[in-house]
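Collaborator request log, item 7. Partner lab (contact: R.S.) asked for a structural prediction of PI3K/PI4K catalytic domain-containing protein to inform their binding assays.
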Amino acid sequence: MSLSFASLCVVLALAGAAAQATIPHVDDCALCFHCTADAKPPPVLPSDLVAANFQPQNVTHKQTLPLCHHCRGCTTTLQIHGSHGQKKLFNTWFRDEVGASPSWLFMAPTDKTPNKKAIVKVACIPVGKHARNKFAQCLPDLALKYAKVYLAIEKLAEECGLTDIVPKVWVDWVNAVIPEVGYHIRWLGLWMEMVDGISLENLVRLGNPMMHPDDLLDILHNKVNHTQAIHAAIFDLLTSQNDRHAQNVFIDNDGTMRLIDNERAFYENRILAADSILLPTTKKYTINVMENAWIHKFPNWGNKVPMCWANVALLLDYRCYVPGGQMGKNLPTQVSQCVARISALNPDSVMQEFGLPVRHMAEALYNRSKAMHEHGFEYALTQGYPRNPNPWRYKFTPPCCKIMHTDTYRCAHGWSPDTSIPFGDPITGGPWTHARPDPGTYEGGTVF
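Returned to partner:
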């Protein structure tokens, strides 16, 4: 149905309930059973998206919670994500993982993914997921921004041949009732393929029983798709991912590797240009080499000598799987063609073509593509733009491509990382302002 017909339904609902001294809405089933959104075509282009369609159409309805348990016109069946117990992978049971997003996350059936399952992220539901968020914020402009970021990533992944490592994403209408809550959603949501598998974080720490270290190392040494590890590093650098940690790297039974929660991209906060456990010289990677307290310069560190542990995430280092440990300009063919084409554009054209929400994000993609095309991967990582602040630009540590477990995980071959760290505040990325001496010994970004 058209938007005008939806508006008419709202008017009819309001008129029919005028005597009820309440603020009615089309979600009141007694008034309007068939004012559904199922006939609306989904948005085709990012330019079709407007913030108003990521929230209830009646503004006052954001503060009310009508119950509509019998939704005759619903087109989607939802389950609350993470509410259904456990899954079994690698002969070990793991709890379902629930994200920390303030938006509601649901599971829903779909015909658009191979496994027929989708995760749907919905903003502006006027009740929080947790008791502490009883009155959730409605930020439709932010929902619109991240929807455009995800659609840009989807287009970029398709063009660069990186769809094997990121879930399919699209924007579509949601017309459904929240289970056990009874609230009727009838606006746009961000849909994404539900990724099979388990996060690297859970794989390492949360099995029931805990996975034996030898089994874990066998998975990461021998089962994980190492071509995908290369693709993952390219994806994180090309899109300037700044929050790639072990909870959003998923691994399936067959060793397939997928990256989720990719919206912190394209230099979106204009501070952090890249931070990923898959990218050497970034903080998250370096924490897997040295102790977290040392990297973060905690005040209780004292005079200890920093030790180097080999966190198992180091087995996803792309350098272990490319000739000579450097990618340079030897990018996969489709990636090479893709960055060459983008670098021949300009930021304004990139913004228009990929539908990015703001120009500085388009500049980030353009500059990253240009550096990778003209100078190669490692140059783009260390010298290209956008750049991290100097306190977050670490030296290369040698790759650890084989790990063993003794009292802890340790590199199984010769490995002597330089444990020096840059000057500056590792929390803010700014200058050192604390009364105690800065344990940093070099200006970040001047030596790798």
